[in-house]
Amino acid sequence: MNDHGKVRLTIRVIGCSWKFVHLNELSTTPDHTNGEHSFTITHPFHPLCGQTFLLLSQRFAWGEERVFFSDPQTHLVRSFPLAWTSLAFPDPFLVVAAGKTVLRFSDLQQLVQLLRQKQTHGQEEH
Fold it and tell me: Residue 80: pLDDT above 60?
């Protein structure tokens, strides 16, 4: 409750679902697992890429949605960003593009900017 006797709530968006969360809820409070029991690391540059772990919890912590698991070697609880795992939702652009494009619009904009910079630098040298 705040000074006016009202309970402050925030809405936490998790994928396509949402829930009310009390602002004083601890980040260590277990959250839902969406019925999943395991996940695989999919980040291509992570040394554990391709390995599967048992899912302990999935929740918002440290500013992002994360998955928690028990490290089989150390038995410590560790976490990864959800986006680095098989539990992440697929990129909507890639789903809609269905493999028909290799660049997103923002990628094309960056390419145009880079080419313009190179063209400008090239003209200065002549």
Answer: yes
